[in-house]
Design brief:
Layout (H helix, E strand, L loop, with lengths): L1 H18 L14 E4 L1 E17 L2 E5 L4 E6 L6 E2 L4 E6 L1 H36 L5 H30 L2 E3 L4 E4 L8 E2 L4 E6 L4 E7 L12 E6 L3 E14 L5 E6 L11 E17 L5 E2 L5 E5 L6 E4 L1 E5 L4 E5 L6 E5 L1 H12 L5
Antiparallel strand pairs: 1-21, 2-11, 2-15, 3-10, 4-6, 4-9, 5-8, 6-7, 8-10, 11-14, 12-13, 12-15, 13-14, 15-20, 16-17, 17-18, 19-20
Helix pairs in contact: 2-3
Length: about 350
Amino acid sequence: MKFRRAAILIGIAFVLSACTPAPETPENPAPAVRTAAAASRDVELRLPLTGRVEPLNSLRLRSLVDGRILRIAVADGAEVTEGESIFTLGGPRVEARNKSLKAEVRAAEIEVESARDLLKQAERRKEKHLATPGECARARTDVAAAEASFEKARNARKRFEGSLVLHTPISGSFTDRRVSTGQEILAGEELGTILNPEGMRIAAEVIPRPGLDVAVGQDARVEAEGAGTLAAEVQAILPSGGTAGEISVWLSGEALAGLSPGMVVRGSIVAAVHEAAVIVPPGAVVMDREDEPLVFVGEDPPYQPRPVIIGERRPDAVEILSGLQAGEPIVVEGAYELYWAEFSKNFKVED
């Protein structure tokens, strides 16, 4: 009898437990995110370089362009001072190249004008609620790209015009002349040598970027094996360069005194500085399905996606050129998970 009563009680308990609803779990739990305020700091725009340490004893003058020797300004063996002109180039090939560069500058200028007109149209459409913020952001990106191309074309023409008169970047003795007046020469051809028996330097090749140029006096940082990071500066831009558009420079500085000739160094030149730039962690920037950058703004859900224009990228930070202000709260971790969760919620594929 007791056994029968116990069995009945166990059965009742089983039925009641089966009727108790299980705790509900969401089908798609919200992604874990972390927010933080967008920061602000100066951002250095750098040009990478590679170079070799060598004693300050000589400099080989090379032509940067194809052309003809129109004038040799100094005699063999003469003493020359820093900045003095040595060779002047010209001829039909120079005139043809100059004409081509002028046409490239004008074409790039037309592209800028067209991009600016399209941006104005997009902004007017946005005011009438006929355009999305993303459309305006893309138009601003197109303007920035067109302006960078225009600046690159102008710098290319400026460098070409500057390369037609070769100046010596050091004082010394002009020797080992290898060309004569009226002679046709090719870019990279050695023209002569300036001898200077004192000092130590780094002869480096700098890789240019659109909109950034190398100038005398710019700060540089170089890494040499066993010596760590050393400070230097651009002492001179040399009348020579690489076939891929590299710019040849000399770097000088007291910190270079301990280096040995022949050492290979790598580093960068600080070509410009964006002061008080808006900075976010790399994980805060999401590239959407159209490969356009955006960030999620807000301290708490729902976080709002906002298109941005990005600038410099570093392993630890990304510069935001427009679309975000310093101090605004953004998602810094889980942004991609949040984007795809929102995308999956709003974009359903029919079975």
